[in-house]
Amino acid sequence: MDVKVYPKQVLKPAPTPTEEEAQEAVRVLLSWAGDNPNREGLLETPKRVTKAFKEYYAGYAQDPADVLDRVFDEVGGYDDMVMLRDISFTSHCEHHMAPFFGRVHIAYLPNGGVVGISKLARVVEIYARRLQTQETMTAQIANAVFEGLGARGVAVFVEALHTCMSMRGVQKHGVATITTQFTGEFKTNPVLQARFMDMVRAPHREFTI
Predict the structure, then answer these.
(1) Are 121 and 88 in contact (CB under 8 A)?
(2) 67 FRET partner, CA 20 to 30 A, in 1, 147, 168, 205?
(3) What residue ranges define each of the domains in the chain, with the CATH number in brackets?
């Protein structure tokens, strides 16, 4: 029996609405929720919401490759793990547009050079400021650092609380979701994975400057 193979559908990007259209959409949602968008307390809400959306989703206009484009080669031969712990983030789930928030831990194995440590936090911020699933965001961060630095391996650990679970649906509070992604040597070497996890779980120590 012949099996028909259909070409993969390519979705064309939707046209970008104007700010006025976006504000009108907020007014419609306010009315749908049961409130009056013309009452005094809500008159400026559509403008505030569209302004907030520009901040929440600023990551769409940023490219992680631009952040990771400068590597420092003068590292005295250092080739061991570089790790950043406790990078805080807030994102929005793509299913309900509800916030989720938590911490990201990133490690990479240099391949002749290192990147400024703030750049890794910027990569997290770029992907967090988009509509996301935690699983997708974890993979995106790992792949961006792996490819952007040409690293020998990257490990990413994300732990987060999702308000779409605590405020609606099953309404369970304090349930943490944990995701990991390993690339390169981290993916093939269980010893490196275990070392990374030990560093993630190590007791926290407060630093003062």
Answers:
(1) no
(2) 205
(3) 19-56 (1.10.286.10), 63-201 (3.30.1130.10)
Pull the structure tokens for residue 159. Answer: 């732990």
E strands, the chain, are 82-93, 99-109, 131-132, 153-162, 176-184
Instruction: Kindly name the residue from 62, 96, 147, 159 that is annotated as catalytic.
Output: 96
Catalytic residue among 93, 105, 140, 181: 93
d(CA 16, CA 21): 10
- 204 carries an active-site annotation: no
Segment 133-190, tens digit of pLDDT: 999 999 999 999 999 999 999 999 999 999 988 887 887 888 899 999 999 999 999 9
How far, in Å, CA of 89 to CA of 122, rounded?
A: 10
- Beta strand 153-162 with 176-184 is antiparallel
Q: What is the mean pLDDT of the chain?
A: 92
**pTM for the full model?**
0.89
SS3 50: helix
